[in-house]
């Protein structure tokens, strides 16, 4: 929470009001409201087809909205063509001009500003240093690696010092290792320059690690806006809960405002408003579930017993695929190697699970 | 129209419609205007003419009734269909075997064969017809092969057509056969599939669209061609020659219009059918496909090689005959060498002047046409707004392929020669020839441009405008240079076709703008066969030189650009 507060006092950079877009009968965006502050790094996160790219393109003016307004620094830009707006953009494909050298690519927007040749050269060198590609100015894009091309595209977008940087899935065409490295580089660069940035991604890990605030989208509307911690710890809907990170979604029966039945077991949970309904969903992350040794389990209440179906090795941790006894529902539990050794669980063995009250989030069960 | 109004008056639209967007809109409207003046209005005028009598009064379908009541006229429909079908069968068959040899075997001499098979397109279709007369005519050196049949008629027409259309068919089928996925053949081999079954279940289905497309192209070319039947058709009437006879011979413009409309129908039908087939063809081959590499098989390779050599031999024989005939005094009596057939003096044609005219015209078409067509294609493909307008321009751009040259030429007479048309000042000038040729060969260039443009990153324009660079700067600094190979291909295609075309321009040249290809026809008509051959050879050589220059230039440019083009 404290992280987001850093931008509370910053002036508003971009405001979107009631933005909608439809292609024929298909609604790509449904009444989007959003406010972005100066210097913020915001990620639009969602599955493919959720409208995140359409929203980004509407902000750029590459796509015209059907309804609604976009205000950038107090100026209504809703109907301005892209060239009259103030932004730099990096595409998934980078769209580097193949017949121009790296330096010419970076200088592409500068030449148009009628700057002096010397000034342009200085700025290009500055940017080349910024992206760690000194001495590569005369190379052509095809002679660079994917990650290097990506950085050139970034430098080209930043060259004219735009007030807003738009990144459209900038990392998804890269190898996993390069992607990890560039993630940090881009984030560091953004913080150094303080440029307000919007990045579209379908990779939740990317969004969580890079963004100051994440906008989770689904079916053309915003599901949740919040800091990475809020999105991960307090998802507002089963969709956000299961799209960001792994999440067990278990069918439970509501008992009271603070308790539910999972099978026969009564569990304390986060307060909810679902008293009227009988069936609800309990959401708990695999790493939030505690696994008890049989000895410890003797002294505990609220225990849930399950059978281990198989154990998946994930490197840093192990994922137990269990079947709840009585409830006949699958549940995932992540634990470390030492924890596993201490409970001596193996395939087919019985384990004792504990769901901490603070982690038990309750959602309405749609479609029941 | 309603959609357009709604579009323009949507909130904020007018604000959007300024600056660069307005320029884009104007450019698109200019493209539309070109298609209206160069294609739609002339064709509509011609359609109207076919419903009028000679004094311009509307008489409904009376002309058509008269046409079908006259067996001498209506018989041409069957004749044309017959010739086109037979030629299509022969050409597609020959081209398929040759293309198979080129792409699926290790036969020797592939490059040379490809080069030789390109030669027929570089000459007007009059050239094979003239050669065939020297070979099989009354004094022909191979007349014995025909026994009692005459070359003047269906046999000659089909032979000439096959020669002239073969390269087109070969190119399409080579493309179709090259885009095959080696992994499918490996899978078939792994499953121990016999060769004949692999051919029936993988090869044929893979190229069926190419085969159909090829058949359509060949059919359209043969049913609309004018040069071959004009020279060698004798008394055998075809639709294309009927138009010429009605208009130039009998000055019966109304009947010319009727025949044109009738000739337009099969061409239009194949065009629509081809479009329909093309639409189903999309994404047959994934980008991950592995190209097929044939492995040697001596018996098969040599059988196909001999087949291809035989075809190459025939092509060389036909062209060689024309060249030989143009350099000897008088076939078959005086076979000594002479250059006098290349003097063209006092033979009624315009001689060398017509060659210069052709050169001027072809050069203008190549330069103007390439710029106009590629720019229009770029406007269609790379603009974001004005969807309805772009669709309309695109539709008009692919339509010329369905309009036979004779029909387009006659339509131009009706439209541009009308005294009330302010554009009639260009009638009889080089301008109308350039416009007509540009429109006549528009479609292939447009499709080539679209293919090249589709290969570019769709976001180049977006990046340009985000950096506040005007769209025309991005066009000239990035789009054009990157598409240079395609642009060069288009220009050389236009040049060669402008050099060799007869059908459309036969109606449109003026006293000062007679073209070389028209001269060939006139020299042949006047009985100066050797000079006609000489002029046809001249055209062939001109096209060949330009083609070689183009190849050299492309090679140089690609080498220079290798640093950024190679991935």
Compact description:
The complex is a heterodimer of chains A (368) and B (567). Chain A is α+β, with helices and mostly antiparallel strands and 368 residues long.
Total tally of structural domains of chain B: 1
Q: In what range is the share of β-strand residues of chain B?
A: under 5%
Q: Could you tell me how far the N terminus lies from the C terminus of chain A, measured between alpha carbons in angstroms? A: 35 Å
Question: Regarding CATH, which class of chain B?
Answer: Mainly Alpha
Looking at the overall shape, the CATH architecture of the largest domain in chain A is 3-Layer(aba) Sandwich
Task: Give the CA-based shape of chain A.
Answer: elongated
Radius of gyration based on Cα positions of chain B: 25 Å
Sequence of strands across the biggest β-sheet of chain B: 1-2
Number of strands of chain B: 2
Largest interface: A-B, 35 and 32 residues
CATH topology of chain B: MetI-like fold
Helix fraction of chain A, binned, reads 25-40%
Keywords summarizing the entry:
heterodimer; A: alpha+beta; Rossmann fold; 2 domains; five-stranded antiparallel beta sheet; 11 helices; 20 strands; B: 567 residues; mainly alpha; MetI-like fold; two-stranded antiparallel ribbon; 2 strands
